[in-house]
Design brief:
It comes from Tetragenococcus koreensis. The model has no long low-confidence stretch (mean pLDDT about 95). This protein has helices at about 5-15, 55-65, 85-100, 105-110, 110-115; strands spanning about 20, 35, 35-40, 45, 65-70, 75-80, 115-120. It contains 5 helices and 7 strands; from the N terminus they run H-E-E-E-E-H-E-E-H-H-H-E. The protein has one domain: Electron Transport, Fmn-binding Protein, Chain A (Pnp Oxidase, Chain A, Roll), CATH 2.30.110.10. By secondary structure, it is of the alpha+beta class.
Length: about 120
């Protein structure tokens, strides 16, 4: 079970824009960063367009928790970093379904971005 409520998944599915905030080393929250979000099954994922070099991704790896705002949903989350092919294939499909026709889709399903896949888990 992903921990996401169906009404949250429905609201998030209608919005292309995820804003993610990750704590700074001093505990304050970093300014929100805009990234894409995709659903695979009942789980939510995001990826670094710049791969593992993305600053927000590096912060997510370091801190393990953050806050998201998307589709009217505000939620504290923790991060997991799946690397298996099956999960990444499912996330690719989630991105294809949501962002079909975008010139940015191809980089978001590239091997570079796949290496920076993050599962968003509600921190309740």
């Amino acid at each position: 079970m992903s921990g996401w409520k169906q009404e949250e998944l429905d609201a998030i599915a209608k919005d292309d824009n995820l804003y993610i905030s990750i704590p700074n080393a001093d505990g304050s929250m970093h300014k929100p960063t805009w990234i894409w979000i995709a659903q695979a099954g009942d789980d939510l994922y995001c990826r670094g367009y710049a791969g593992t070099d993305a600053r927000w991704y590096q912060s997510a790896k370091r801190e393990g928790t953050g806050h998201i705002s998307v589709g009217g949903v505000e939620k504290d989350v923790r991060f997991e970093f799946p690397t298996d092919k099956e999960t990444n294939d499912q996330v690719d499909e989630g991105y294809r379904q949501k962002y079909e026709g975008s010139p940015y889709l191809s980089p978001m399903i590239s091997e570079k971005a796949r290496q920076a896949t993050v599962r968003l888990i509600p921190a309740n």
